[in-house]
Amino acid sequence: MTRWIAILLVLILAAAGAVATDAWRAMQAKIRPSELPTTFVLEEGSSWSALVRDLERRQWLQAPRDSLYLRLFGRLNDQTTRLQAGEYRLVQPVTAQELLAMLVAGRVVQHSVTFIEGWTLAEALEALRAEDNLKHTLPEEREQAIAQLRESLGIEAANPEGWFLPETYHYTRGSTDREILERAHRAMKAALEAAWAERAEGLPLDNPYALLTMASIIEKETGAPEERGRVAGVFTRRLQRGMRLQTDPTVLYGRDPERSGRLRRIDLVTDTPYNTYTRGGLPPTPICLPGRASLQAAANPAEGTALYFVSRNDGTHVFSDTLAEHNRAVNRYQRGGGE
Prior knowledge:
The protein is mainly alpha-helical and about 350 residues long. The chain has 3 domains: about 30-105, 2-Layer Sandwich (Dna Ligase, domain 1); about 110-190, no CATH class; about 200-335, no CATH class. The chain is built from 13 helices and 6 strands.
């Protein structure tokens, strides 16, 4: 009898050893998606067992018994109660321990959307609508979306144009379009406050909003970083002398939306609140989303004597002190008149 008990004990220990070995193998085995890299979403409130079922359904486990051992692992490891919901990316096979560490740490996928300097708010809204990983909460109709933003963000201006800093904003799956815009608005308020605090003395700008408007014009007038200060200087001197800004981008922004293409003479002589050929001073609102560099240029324009500039058609401009010099530059670069 004693002999059979000993044999039974040996068999039990052998079986237990085999199970333990198999379980150890399952813990060390790699969870292998059929394609890499790949992403998966852990929904809010999901348990470790639910995750294991999802891995099994996706056929990411190597052996049929692996799901059983992974569930047992979840019961024995209290960290499996601290999973963070979100979207995760696997770029290589991982063990159960490695996967658990990722989920507990919340190393979720970071997406990004970029607002380009010089974009209008309408263009920023279009970029957000193109983001499939965002939750879209704003109305599709542009004017309704803009009206909601203005109200929710407490923007006093009738048109919230310009109040969103052009930068790259990172977000996680399920974030809302409104959250991105709220961050961009806070960033712009901070950048504008900093630029206003560091502004040069004697600027013909009454308040930070005027600086924001000036910066938006500078942003649209030149893409050459080294020219921003000089362009700001021209506009500053023109305002100081009571001259009209006569800048095409403001006319483009304010003209009839039914019209498109290049500016024509009819656009320059048709009066609108944004036509700086027919009206003095700054336009009533910014005309785009200006970047930090344009804010700094508006706050600290370059010194000089130029009152005019014209495009060379290569992204740079010719600056002139007098109207006669300016007309010669216009003739050369815009009308093909040569020297």
